[in-house]
Amino acid sequence: MVKITYFGHSSVKVENEYTSVFIDPFFINNPSPTIKNLNSIKADYIVVTHAHADHLGDTVAIAQNNNSLVLSNSEIISRISNYDIKCHAMYISGKYNIVSGWIKFFPALHGSSFEDGTYGGLAIGVMIKLDGKMIYHAGDTGLTVEFKAIGELYNVDIALLPVGGNFTMDCADAAIAAKWIGAKKVIPIHYNTWDRIAVKEQDIINSFQNITELQILKCNQSMIMD
Ligand code: NI
Ligand code: MN
Question: Mind listing the pLDDT tens digit for each residue in 167-177?
Answer without folding.
Answer: 999 999 999 99
